[in-house]
Design a protein that fits this description.
Order of helices and strands of chain A: HHEHEHEHEHHHHHHHHH
Distance between the termini of chain B: 35 Å
Number of domains of chain A: 2
CATH superfamily of the largest domain in chain B: P-loop containing nucleotide triphosphate hydrolases
Strand content of chain A: 5-15%
CATH topology of the largest domain in chain B: Rossmann fold
Helix content of chain B: 25-40%
Shape of chain A: elongated
Shape of chain B: elongated
Structural class of chain A: mainly alpha
Structural class of chain B: alpha/beta
Oligomer: heterodimer
CATH architecture of the largest domain in chain B: 3-Layer(aba) Sandwich
Radius of gyration of chain A: 27 Å
Order of helices and strands of chain B: EEEHEEHEHHHEHEEEHEHEEHEH
Amino acid sequence: MNALPYLLEKEFKQFLRNALLPRIALMVPLMVMLVAPLVATMDVRDVRVALVDHDRTVASRRLADRVAASPYFTLVARPAAYAAALRLVEDDRADVVLTIPADYGRQLGAGREPPRVHIAANAVNAIKAQLGAGYLSQLVAAHTATPGADRLAVQYRYNPTLDYHAYMVPALMTLLLVVLCGVLPALNIVSEKEIGTIEQINVTPVGRLTFTLAKLIPFWVIGLVAVAVGVVVGGAVYGVWPAGSLWLVGLVSLLFTGVMSGFGLVVSGYSSTLRQALFVIYFFVMIFILMGGLFTPIASMPRWAQAVTYALPTRYYGEAMRALYLKGATAIDLLPHLGALALMALGLGAWAVGSYKKTER
Amino acid sequence: MNAPAIATENLTRRFGRLTALDGVTFRVGRGELFGVIGPDGAGKTTLMRLLATLSRPDAGRASVLEFDTVRQQAEVRRRVGYMPGRFALYPDLTVAENLAFFAALYRTDVAANYDLIAPIYGPLERFASRPAGKLSGGMKQKLALSCALIHRPDVLLLDEPTTGVDPVSRREFWTILARLRSQGMTVVASTPYMDEASRCDRIALCDAGRFLRVDSPDAVRRSYGRPLFGLSAAADRHALLLAARRDAAVRSCYAFGNEHHLAFRDRPDPDGLRDRLEAGGFRDVCLRPIEPGVEDCFMQLTERHD
């Protein structure tokens, strides 16, 4: 253990002296936090609506005005027939066709259930179609509701304005930690194998635990710096600050970097070339990111996939970070997450020590 | 000889179907400069790695300073200095940082052992702040040796330290090894260069994972056991080699630098052979008695295996 400070000093010197690594370690969090929310937007705006009004009454005109006034819609055309409206969709000049049937205004005026309004959406872009048609049908329902009928009241808890930044920022922090603290360690030991320096270490009396710790600790530091950058950018640029304690954000992030760096070292330990290590870690990074519930809800996955997510560290970290950012969760609330991550970090750390062999068998 | 510095018994290492080291038994005395000499693929690196605890034998055993290389690895590692065949220091750390780093790993420091490495490290000192990766080949090798010596090992294992090094640096390197030996260190160095054998106290000639002979270089040379001749002629050297080999009286003929080395089957008859070769069209055929070298012995020993 006495050698640990010297090994750490060497790791940091090598990291800082590398022409690329320190820049990447700083650029990844900045790029992910600054660019990703702009391009990975889930907000649907400016849905182009073609209106086919067979009714032509005050009521139908009022509905058209409401659509036009909404920030989500632009009324692009008022063709006389449905077929003409569909052609606009085919030519990609409209996204949604709203058809108001004849007799709509009269029935509504008489306090009766009016004939059904028809909405057709271009589902080539499924999200746009779904959200556009959804917003539109809400708007129509509100307009069409007959007096006295029950009005539906929807309230969005924890994120009342449905600001997708608040949803994305914790997910992006998970993403950047996976990239920095999972991929970089995976390339570390294996590169010492490739350039041969590990031989010279292996003949020294340095212990396996000491050596492994010296490889892990730098990534804990790098991970925490990246999280700090992420929190500051998320707050300063998008106004999204964690509602929970920053200490807890730090603790859960430290545990997660522990898991990821341990995992990276295990991959590195079993690989004999950089190429192998890179392929293996990429495979797992994809699974961690796609199945971790970061961008798509775990609840909508098939049963077996949901079961798999319990083994994914990204699931626990993503959930914990969302809870911290949006709900202001406390340590007690996050106990299962902290526990799962701590167990994984310990297990993978032990595995990393075990997979590092000073003697070839 | 009291307790040996290195002793192996039937040491065997396989890689899949290849037997890289095939039942090697030998001893190296304390304070000996021992050369492991053989061509590529002879098993030199495998042997060095086994002795340095980097690899474990499939059969047999090895001990260094009476510590078993499998069961007492920690003891062995503390007392052995190892220099791999490939430059294995950190290219992005400076010369001084590499030296200080390896000293720290052995829980010592550079100052305490400076006297030992001074003759080797001295010329490097003005490059102390240069990254190790940017040194010349000879300098890299001196730094690697300094790092292998920084903890004052009792046994120094060098895997092909002179491969890829210019002839002047090679000579210089062997002088350094001789000096370390005179300070009481046991040195085992492997090399594919047969001409380096004379710098060792004893050598092991090895081929295809086996030790063919272990002895002093002089004893190895004496063991050749028959008169050897140097053959040269004015004509095409390769044609001469083939013609000599075809001759019924010739036991062996190998191409060496300036002349071919030739041995007869029975009683040497240089005059008869010269006449036959000249009758075959070669001019100025010259056959002169020469002293056998280690390489001649190696050729003779591998012949029997073929």
